[in-house]
User: What shape does this take?
Amino acid sequence: MSSQVDIEAAGSNAGCVLEYDDLRDWLSAVEAKGDLKVVTGANWHTDIGQVVEVMCHDEGTPSVLFDQVEGCPSGFRILINWFTGSRKNLTLGFPESFDKLELSRGYHAHTTNMKPVRHEIVDTGPVLENVLEGDNIDVTKFPAPLWNPEDGGRYIGTGCFNITRDPETNWINCGTYRVMIHDEKRVGLYISPGKHGRIHREKYMAKGEPMPVCIVVGTDPLSFLTSSTEVPEGMCELDMMGAYRGKPIQCVTGKHTGLPFPANSEVVIEGFIHPGNTEREGPFGEWLGYQGSAMEAEPWVDISAIYHRNDPILLGAAHIRLPYEYARYRAISRSAVLKESMAKAGVPDVTEVWAHEVGGSRLFLAVAIKQRYPGHAVQAGHIAAMCHAGAYLGRFVIVVDEDVNVTDLEEVIWAACTRCDPVSNINFIENAWSSALDPILSPQDRKDGKLYNSRAIIDACRPFHWKDDFQKVNAPSPEARREAWDRWAHLRE
Assistant: This one.
């Protein structure tokens, strides 16, 4: 990287160094590192999905760029497997030497106290190189694949963000919601209940008015990551993208909706959701690693225009059995946001938090604390489970002492096995915020809109009232461990 990061001093825009301004800059950096494979001549029916299965489970595989996809214009491309290995570091702007916990710490330090930088409206940008309207609109020519054999159609919106406006306050929101191709001029847009985009849509529908929407299906990884990070109501993610970068995001406005979107986007779909227009959407292989059910009556977007750069690139975020790419990028950001949310809620001495990849960064949270008082662990677990960053579709929260590495699943489970009495140390929360995507919901509950689940809060800390008398761990000190590795790591080669 171009410079080192002072984590302790971070918390402003000096906290990281980004080597790119858009997806093409990012790709150039990845290619220079020898971390990009190009596949030509693949088909969208089966080939792209098969490559996803082969590549995206493994942290050490390169990014893959598909070009000359069968049935699509030459130069219309799609990128997959972009947030693995050192590409995580490149995307977030931190040194390659950082492991995932250091990345989360750096992200937390950089974003803590970060002030929004308002986006700028400009007259033009690369995304306006091609403007398709009227009879020229054809979303099917883009290389959107059938990601999973059981999917109900092609999904162009996976690594995307969707821009909507609150009709009452004019607040601009960006959210990540799946986008299915219905035909040349219509796409489905599924938004889970409780999400900001869904709230906006409900307000428009209640007024009997069409909702304008812009769908950015070609963007750089950082913008996608920022758009999918929980922010308070009323805050615009475009402005948080600018805050992270330390400079305003330049945006153009859609000709039909007036909504802003980044001027250096690769592909943007602009249109309207009209009251009463619904159609079956899905099924889709969702982020939980299960084939989600079809949504029988979901709104569609009537496309007014498609904007794209020359030789456009879709950003693909495949959804397969966990853990995979989606979970890796969300784990870093959500862990940082959770730690900050817990601090703001008044939970002291939270040393580390990790939203585990195996749970899609939502269903399995590990929290490490330095115990200060009776009930500290239970308090920490409940806050982690029910603060905004942790409330949606959670399942398990395990609270451990500060000697446990929260990123190491084996250590977390070891703590639960040896420090938790199931009868007295597991609390439950009922009727919590879930989703139709939750595989544990019964078909009838899903149909009836009973989108609730329960949470288990597992206190895997040493019992507070006799923690000082708890058996000592038979492990060397961190200093002794480092010495051992320095001397003997060659035996593992």
